[in-house]
Amino acid sequence: MAKFFIYIVIIFIGIQFITIDAKEHIQSNPQDEIIVNSEIKTILKRSCYDCHSNSSTIPWYGDIEPSSWLVRSHINDGRKILNFSEFRKYDTEKQKDLFDRIEDSVVIRMPLASYVWLHNDASLSQEDKVKLKEWSRSEYKAI
């Protein structure tokens, strides 16, 4: 049993050197960031920006392998789908598609339950969801 424990410790220490790259803060051009009113911006920053912007906050467990693999993978995947820090770089068709998807996402799956489990403040209230849906719908129509 002692050898098994030693092997586990060695493996755990060894995997600390295997990392997935996700930068917490990527230098962004403020001119590329989405323009929203302060109320929507507050909701987005609280519930979406950690995975969907260039200003992610990596929690303490995000620097410990193997949990960091999941955290950084979510950030990388989230930025590929939608990055509010670079929103104005998208062409109008992409922006329109994203506004359409935002409306569905806040109802169905966002923020992810696994994220909310560790970040209670990121949970979207029904009022937040209504505001985001109305905002995304009006932006979609405005394009």
Structure notes:
- The protein has helices at 2-15, 38-47, 49-52, 67-81, 92-108, 113-118, 126-142.
- It is mainly α and 143 residues long.
- The chain is built from seven helices and no strands.
Write the layout of secondary structure elements.
Elements: H1 2-15, H2 38-47, H3 49-52, H4 67-81, H5 92-108, H6 113-118, H7 126-142
Helix pairs in contact: 5-7
Which descriptors would you attach to this protein?
single chain, mainly alpha
**C-alpha end-to-end distance:** 64 Å
> Which blocks of ≥5 consecutive residues have pLDDT under 50?
none
H-E order: HHHHHHH
User: How many DSSP E strands?
Assistant: 0
What count of domains describes the coordinates? 1
Beta content: under 5%
Average pLDDT rating: 79
Indicate the structural class. Answer: mainly alpha
**Helix segment tally:** 7
Radius of gyration: 18 Å
Helicity level: 55-70%
Give a quick summary of the entry.
The protein is mainly alpha-helical. It has helices at residues 2-15, 38-47, 49-52, 67-81, 92-108, 113-118, 126-142. The model has no long low-confidence stretch (mean pLDDT 79).
